[in-house]
Amino acid sequence: MAPVQVRGTVLTVRRVDAYVAMTVVAPAIATRFRPGQFIAVAVGGPQSAMLARRAFSVHDVRPDHGGTVEFIFLAREPGTQWLAECRARDVLDVVGPLGRPFPVPRDPASCLLLGVGTGAAPLFSLASRLAERGCPTDYLLGAESADRVFGALTARRTGRSAVITTSDGSLGSRGSVVDMLPTVVQQARTDVIYASAPLGVLRAVCALAGRYAIPVQALVAEPPMMCGTGLCMGCVLPAVSSDGVTRMVRACVDGPVFRGDLVRWDDVGTIPFDALGAPGWKPRPTSATSPAPPASSATSTVPAPGTASGSSGNPASSPISSAPGITSPSRSSSPPGSSGERSHAG
Amino acid sequence: MPADLRTRIGHLDLPSPILTASGCAGAGRELAQFTDVARLGAVITKSVTLEPRAGNPAPRLAETPSGILSSPGLQGPGIDGFLQRDLPWLLSRGARAVVSIAGHSAREYGELAARLSDAPGVTAIEVNLGCPDASAAGRPFALDPAAANAVVAAVRGSARYDIPVFAKLSPEVTDIAAVARACVSAGTDGLSMINTLPGMAIDPATLRPALAGLSGGLSGPAIRPVAVRCVWQVREALPDVPIIGSGGVRTGRDALELMLAGAAMVAVGTVLFHDPSACSRIQRELEEELVARGVDRVSDIVGRAHQPAGYAAGRTWV
Fold first, then answer.
1. Record: contact A237-B277, CB cut-off 8 A
2. What's the Rg (C-alpha) of chain B?
3. Site from A229, A231, A253, A287 to mutate, B interface, most B CB atoms within 10 angstroms
4. Contact check, Cβ <8 Å, A52/B270
5. Of A159, B94, B160, B247, which is the most buried if we count CB atoms within 10 A?
6. Which residue of B has its CA nearest to A270?
7. Taking a C-beta distance cutoff of 8 angstroms, is the pair A23, A100 a contact?
8. Would residue B230 show up in a list of annotated catalytic residues for this protein?
9. Which of A1, A48, A51 to probe the B interface (max B CBs under 10 A)?
10. Which CATH code is given to the segment(s) A111-219?
11. Distances (CA, A) of A247 to A60, A290, B7, B153
12. Contacting residues for B240 by C-beta, under 8 A, at least 6 apart
C-alpha cells in the first residue's frame, strides 16, 4: 500500500542499552506496515535547518491507541540527537511505511535472521510473520559490544536458537557474525537467510551464502537515505535486474530489501562499467525503439542492450526482491559481466 | 473570497503558479503518493538526456545547514524511456509536463527538443543550461552568454512553435542579466532561475570530500536570498520576460517573496525531500497570504516589489 505522511504523537521514548526506542502513534502507518519496511522522520521541527529525513526500520507495530510504530536508533548526530530529546506528546512528521518488505516463503522453511546493531530491529516483526507460516527461526546477532546488541533477550526467548557475537567479546562469542555464519547455517540447516547489517557484513554474508547455495534477503541501510521517498536519487547501488542488466537502483524504493545475489556488493559506491547508462555505455542501434517491459513495475524501461532481441520473453518485472523467489536458490540472471561485454561489442 | 491562482503566460495556462523544480520530483510518480499532481501548476521533470545515464556514484548527497549538496549526475532513462513511460504517466494523471532537457552540445539540446515536439502533451520545455559544455572544457553553458545563446537558439529552432521554451540560468555569474538577454535574443519565451550554486563539504569522519563527485550543487532555503536577488535583477533588466523563480522555497510566504521580486511562477525543489506534500501546502499558504493582503489575483503581485514605495497607498495591502 502507498505510504502516507502523518503527524504522529510520540507515545514513549526509552533507552535500550546504547539505543533509543521511540513509539509514535500513527495508525495509518501501522495498518499498512509489513516487516522490512521503514519510516522517514523529519527532524528539527517545522523550520528545521536539517532538510534530510532520517530513515529507520520499523521495529514493531502495535494496535494500542489505534496503531503505534516503534523504531530504534543511536543518537550520534544532530538529527538523531534532536529526536532523542523528544518527549511523550511531542508531534513528529513521519512518512511511511516505505520500501519493499521482506518476502516470506510460502511453505515452512528454516530461516536464519542475521542482524548487526540496530539492523536487528526489523527482524523481530519478521519472525512473528515467519512463525505464522510455520517457519522455524534462528538468530545470529552481532555488534561491537554488549550494549549494542539489540534484542538478544527476545532472540533467545523466541528463536529456536540464538547466537550472539561481539567484537570485544563482552557478550556471546568474540568476533563478527560472519565468523559464526558457517557453523550456524550448518547446525540450523538454514534454507533462507534474512540479513540486516552494514554493507560490508552483507557482502560477506552473501558471498558465504552463495557458497552454500542459500538465498539471502538483504536489508540495506546505506548509502544514507535523504528523503526515503525516491525523490532525491541519493541512495543508489548497482543491482542486476531480471533481464540481466545492471542498473543503479534506489535502496529506498527498489529496496531496502534486495535479493542478495542480485546486488553487486563489490561495486557499491561505484558505477560499474556495464551498468545501464554508465559513462561510455552505448545502446545498440536496433534496441532504441524496441518495446519496453510492462510499465507498472520495472525500474527502467530502456531495453537491455545485449538482450533486447533474445530475452523479451522474460517479463522484466521488478528486479530485486520478487516475492515468491526466495526458496529457489538458483540465480535467475546471467553473470553480470557477460551482458556488459556484449553491449560494448554492439 | 479565495484568491485566483490561475497563471496565464502566452500559450501557458496553468491552474496555479506553483510547480515542482527540476530534479527534485522525478517525473512526478513518487510525489503523486503525497500530492495531487493535477492540481499543481505543472511538474518540471528531472532533466532528460538523449541516452540513459547511470549518474554519479554514491554518496551523491550531503546535508548542509538549511541546504542539501547534491551531484546525482543526471541519472535517468534517457529520452526514449521518458517518452515511453514517464510522459504518458504524467498526462494520464492530468498533470502538465514541463520537460527539462540536458545535453553536452547545442546539437543534443536541439535533438531533444525535436523529439519532445513530436510527442503529444508537452506543456513547455525547460533548458537546463547547468550541464558541462563538451566544446568548452566542461564549462556549464549558463556561465557564458554566447554558449547559452547557441543552446537556446538550437532548442527554439527545433521545438514546435507552440511549445514555450524556458532557459534555466545559473546564479554563478557576474552579470545574470547579460546571460538572460543572450537567451532572450535567441528566442526563449521565458527564463527559469536559479539553478544550484556549486559547493563542497568534507566529511570529518573520513577526512575526505563528502560527495563521490567531490563538489555538488547547493540548494534549499540556504540559497533563497540568492534566488530573490537573481529574479530581481533579471526582472529589472527584462520586465516583460516571464520568470519561473526557484531556490529554497519552503512556505507560501517564500513563494510570495519570489513573486514580488518578479517571478510569475515558483518552482519548489529541495524542500520536497523534507516534505513530500510541500507543493500542496505552499499553494494553500500562498493563497492565504494573498487573501490576507486583499489580493484577488496572483498575477497582480508579480514584480510588485519593483514599484516605488507608496504606489500602493490607498490600496488594502502592503
1. no
2. 19
3. A231
4. no
5. B247
6. B57
7. no
8. no
9. A51
10. 3.40.50.80
11. 32, 18, 40, 35
12. none
Nearest to B57 among A93, A229, A269 (CB): A269
Whether the CB of A302 is below 8 Å from some CB of chain B: the reply is: yes
* Grid coordinates given for A146: 554488549
Q: Which residues of A touch B247 (CB under 8 A)?
A: none
Contact B217, B197 (CB under 8 A): yes
Do A264 and B35 form a contact (C-beta atoms < 8 A)? Answer: no
Compute the nearest-CA separation of A234 from chain B (Å): 5
Distance CA B62, CA B51 (A): 27
pLDDT in tens, chain A (346 residues): 799 999 999 999 999 989 999 999 999 999 999 999 999 999 998 889 999 999 999 999 988 888 999 999 999 999 999 999 999 999 999 998 999 999 999 889 999 999 999 999 999 999 999 999 999 999 999 999 989 999 999 999 999 999 999 999 899 899 999 999 999 999 989 999 999 999 999 999 999 999 999 999 999 988 889 999 999 999 999 999 988 899 999 999 998 999 999 999 999 989 998 889 888 777 665 444 444 444 343 333 333 333 333 333 333 344 444 444 444 333 333 333 333 333 333 2
User: Cα angle at A234 between A34 and A299, to 5 degrees?
Assistant: 60
* A323 at interface of B, judged by CB pairs closer than 8 A: no
Measure CA of the first residue to CA of the last residue in chain B; give whole Å.
Answer: 18
Q: Which of B24, B131, B183, B230 is catalytic?
A: B131
Instruction: Provide the CATH number for the domain formed by A4-98 in this structure.
Output: 2.40.30.10
- Burial class, A16, CB count within 10 angstroms (exposed 0-12 / middle 13-18 / buried 19+): middle
Contact of A199 with chain B, judged by CB distance below 8 Å, is answered with no
Count the residues in chain B: 318
Question: Looking up cell 555569474, which residue turns up?
Answer: B173
Neighbours of A160 (CB within 10 A): 13
Exposure b/e, A311-335, CB count within 10 A at least 16 = b? beeeebebbbbbeebbeebeeebbe
Distance of alpha carbon A30 from alpha carbon B231, whole angstroms? 45
How many residues are listed for chain A in this entry?
346
Superfamily classification of domain B7-306: Aldolase class I (3.20.20.70)
Residue of chain A nearest B221, judged by CA positions = A49
- The verdict on a CB contact (< 8 Å) between A277 and B274 is no
Q: Where are the domains of chain B?
A: 7-306
Closest CB from A2, A47, A277 relative to B52: A277
What are the residue boundaries of the structural domains of chain A, listed by start?
Answer: 4-98, 111-219
Contact between A122 and A196 (Cβ < 8 Å): yes
Cell of B183: 537567451
Per CB-CB distance under 8 Å, the chain B contacts of A50 are 63
Which residues fall within 8 angstroms of residue A92, CB to CB, at 6 or more apart? Answer: A7, A8, A9, A10, A24, A41, A42, A83, A86
Residues of B whose CB is below 8 A from A247: 54
